[in-house]
Amino acid sequence: MCTPELIEARWRRWGTTALVTAGALITGHWVTVLIATRWWSETVAPAGRPFVTHWIVLRGLLEALGLIIGAGWFAGNLLVVARAIGSVELPRRIGDLDIREAVSPTAVFVPATITGAVLGLLAGSGLGRQTGAILLAWHGLHWGLSDPVLGHDASVYVAQLPLWIAALHFVTVLVAGAAIAVAIAYAALGALKVGRAGIAITDAARTHLGLLLAGVAIVFAVGMLLLPARGLAHLAGGGALPSSPLIASSGMLAVVAAAGAVLIAAWALRGRSTWLVAGVITMALVAGVRVTLATMGGVSVSPAAVRSFTLDAWGLAGVDDGGIRPVLGEVNAPTATGLWTASVLLPVGAPIDRVVAASRSAVRIAGEERRAWLVLRAAGDSTDLSVIADDQANGAGGPLSFRPTDPLAYPGTVTYAALPPGSVWPGAPDRSLGTVGVRVGGAARRLVLAWAAQAGALLAATVADSTRLGWYLDPIARLAQLFPPARWSEPEIVLDRGRVVWVVPGSVPYSAFPLAPRAEVLGTEAGGADPGLIGVIDAETGAGRIFLLPGAGPVAKAWRDIAGALIEPADSIPPAVAAGLTYPVEWLALQARILGEGSFGLPLVGADTGDLVRPVPVWDSMLAVHQVAFVDPAPPGRVVALLAGEVHDRRFLVRLLRIPAAASLPGPRRLARSWTQFASYGQVVDSIQAAGDRIIAGPVAYEWRNGRLEASQLTYRAARPTSPAVIWASVAVDRRLGAGGDLAGAWANLQGRTAPLARPGRTSDRLAQARLWVERADSALRRGDLTAFGRAFAALKELVEAP
User: Fold this and answer.
1) For residues 349 and 396, is the Cβ–Cβ distance under 8 A?
2) Phi/psi at 793 (nearest 5 deg)?
């Protein structure tokens, strides 16, 4: 027979076992993660181990604090419910009789405690996500820029408001959740009944539930106080600024809401229903007035103020839209546009290859600096780097590759360097056992590592103690573990004294910023961001370093002080890394979107009326140059400005260049349509499609050179598994168009010196290159260098067999 005492004993035993087991597992995992991460950070960035340790400890304590508060709060409220009821009756059947047997309140304590703990764990989890906000608020911040409405410094929005909002949200979940849980519990146990005669509630239930409802009203009142600041930071919903009457009345509405809370509390303690009705009516009036005032239009803020705060929030404070940089010289040479883009290079190599990264950089080959693409390919367990010339192609338009000590460029892709197993690269496996990483060691050490890294393979007897475990092998994941407050962009490849190094731009997003529009920063919605960090990862050893750039803002500088030795000054950036720094393309695209979608009309130079237009930013994901064109949407749709990202003295700079009407060009779509009107282009397309190959039209790239706006576009032939090839080039300048088999031919056609011939028809160029490779093969054979002879013969074969 299942007696109430037996039920209580079972609940107590099961509940205690479950809570102890869950607590042990959570605590054990947290401790192992802490220990293993300390070992890992010692191998990756010894200077950053204190910060990484403090971050994990604080995050774990905050998470534990949230769980304890949540579990204790909900369990305590449900225990109050259990104590408040006189008795609980459970239905029982004895023979043919149905009876109800009274259960003492003590028999309800254990299930109430367990239920409350589960609800509290759900409500209290996630407090550790506020680790960064707490550290930044504790450190303090001063921006020196006050909003024109409330007079708060921008630092209040960046460092304090997010923490206030998080605290208010946490308390709201606890109080409102407890009110709902308690109401359901009282209703289930018969202490709260709703019928035709009205609401019947016991005194104990009224006091308990009423105080919780008063707490909900207090939370609402506090939210009214935060509403103006939240509205100015576009955090109040709707995306529009709050109205002036709502801002002016928020304090009064908060006082009235607090008065409503007092009335509800008085009902809870005294039991007079009129007080409850008065309190509910008061809260309803406050909510109604708030909604009404919110519809009265946004607060009046000058466009100049919105512009100033937006530029500060999104790293555009130094943007120069006052004119165009003076450039001297004649238009007498092809543009500096490279031959390749990252997306075109993706199919390079055999079909089983997977290109994981491609970066444009300057590379020193046999003492000479060359513009090249660094392409990393993964095939099985091997990872190879190829260096592809960006300023020249072979006779068939295909890529030319370099070797470390060979000044010659060879057709196709050759391996420049090979990365050992366990190296760091984008998309690398989560874990790797090899010679790089944390030493596995004895049984206790490997148990800690296996639990922390979720790597059960470490427990196998075949794994030697000297084996090392590498994890976080993706550059972004590794830097995110080293410095969690930042968001990291796509890594770029740089060669530092022959070693492959990943250079990863980092930005610190702001949860809130006054007046500035919100946008997504690498998966995180933010009111702004500070792109003041650079992460550097050695691909072979996995060693990581983080540097603060000279143009970093107040938030990045504050995090430098918090992180200590983990974030190094810009002077410590290795020279090769500093020379290879490029403006982050993702960040430039985000800035262009902010400028295009915000209230930023650009005055058209030379317009008599001076009217403002809102040009549309146009860029292409294939484009690897650091400029974004702004196109006037009104006919004829000409380019009116260029947003250019540059790096000067290790500092990211962005310039907005306004293009005079006399020097402008049509937008990308219109230009591309004009270029396709060349008869020779149609012949090239027909011949390639007839061969079953695919045409890839590259992006339209604009460049301000020599006092004029230039545009170019390359078209490629793609036929896997062979390498891509440049088969057509188009250029435009000063309302003139040119086309040809390459950029030089297109430029000559624009100047009227040649007809637009496709690359396959340029027999003379191919014959000249064939003679060159024959001479190199003959020279290599005479001196007995069979390796060089094989390379030259392969190049000659590819040139002859090209269509």
Assistant:
1) no
2) -65, -40
